[in-house]
Structures
1.
Amino acid sequence: MDIIFEYRQILIEGTIVTISLAILSLLLSVTLGLFGAFAKLSPSRGIRRMGNVYTTFVRSVPDLVLMMLIFFGGQALITQLGGVTGLWGYVEINQFLAGVLTLGFIFGAYMSETFRGAILAIPRGQIEAAMAVGMKPGQIFRIVTWPQMVRFALPSFTNNWLVLVKSTALVSVIGLHDLVWNAFSAGRSTHKVFTFMLAVLVIYLIITGVSDLILRWIDRKYSAGVRRA
């Protein structure tokens, strides 16, 4: 434990990067998930097809492959585009930004299915009743759809969030100094990789444990007054 305490600063810094990456990726994935869900429920066949292509593509490609494609392929593509247009030269994508975009893009597909299922679980009669009393689409979403969608989506949302937190470890392969990168570097320099990986395990358990408590509180809040079978 003395060696962990000695290197506590880089572990703390890595933990902050990991949590920041997870939260920003979650915000992006929720945004993409809502768009994806409404696209898959759209009356337009073309929009539904676009939503299906997005979710099918993401669920068919390994997360690590997408990470590498966005980081290296995107960097090369933007640089080539700048060379063709003459507007800019070499562009280097920030590892943190690449991690947020990749994880947000990946989990946006999973969130799309989560939100789509939650919306379909809302009784259609409630939407029709809201329309009958003259509510506008924005009011229907805010008053009728959103509160119930959150309640129905929370179990799957919780699972997606916990998987997303674990997936942040992937960004270490593109050089981002997150928790895994910092711990592995410290372990390699001290020849105690196993010890530092155990520390990483404990930190991830703490993060997921706190997340579970927060999500349970949200579930109780949105389930208030609902009688469970």
2.
Amino acid sequence: MPFLLTFGDSNTHGTPPIETRGEYRRYGAEIRWPQVCWRALGAGWELAEEGLPGRTAAFDDPVMGAQMNGRAGLRIALQSHGPVDVLTIMLGTNDVKTRFAAPAETVLAGVAGLVDLALSIEMQTRHGGFRVLLICPPPVEEVGPLRGEFLGGAARSRALAPLYRDYAAARGIGFLDAGQVIGVSAQDGVHFEAEAHGALGRAVAEAVRGLS
């Protein structure tokens, strides 16, 4: 039975656009894009959702904690689940926060470290080989209650897709530019509306089916 592992941040977790800071909410399974993708793939697939709100590709967060660094999280996920057949990675949104001031190339470097781990002999051998789909998140917008945390992030995030695309081609992994499929909510400039989850889930399923 093929196994899909979706690794990401709050948009993989299913956090709706934020209305009140500090309030925890999550879309139901019928809305979240990993679940939409899983259903679109059809019978016979298993799914593990590994979305952590606040997760970065490579930064310890001084506010939210060191556990937000995706390097440790991906290793744990790959050791917790399996055998994995397809891994999706969608990170980079939190890396463009003002407190990290990371240029796009630095964000890519963090993502590259995660891909290197996924493609390592250790992990590939553990799972009997699996494919990787790198998803570039849609650019953030500096609006709403999160504007202060993402000041300057819009420009940084707009520069990610070409870098991710070239890197995926160089590494021989799958690539999907989510920004060509959906956009962020106008409410908080970071998270996805329910309709966007549906569109992204269907696009990811198509990309997974196209992996060689």
3.
Amino acid sequence: MIIRQALPDDAELLKELYFEHLTAFPPAEEQNMQMWRELIQHFYDDDNIELLVCEVSGKVVSSVHVTVIKNLTHNLRPYAVIENVVTHADHRCNGYGSALLSEATEFAKKHNCYKVFLETGSNKESTLNFYRKNGFSVDAKHSCLKRL
């Protein structure tokens, strides 16, 4: 297992991972993979963002995206948001997602974040237990969503 920042060359593997193992409703339209590569490069270059991947036998099997957001409260300490936590269905329960969440949390700590926040659209007890096992409180706050 290798944990590293995503590189532009990972775009196709990330698209497959997201569209087949993360979202129930992937976009139907053809994706502009050059734009994917450019955005991944932007994430790589931005000190406040990490798009992390777990690579096993040369294939990206898990990913997590963490962004540090500057903040005017909590003595100007930022907070971090984790999104797109996904592991290929054939590679679940091997510790890859947990390793990525740990790395994302360390990234937040290095940025002096006062909290790490994530949401899940899943109500499956196994998913909620996964987050609990990784130190996240499932019922501590309420999330409100407005789709645009």
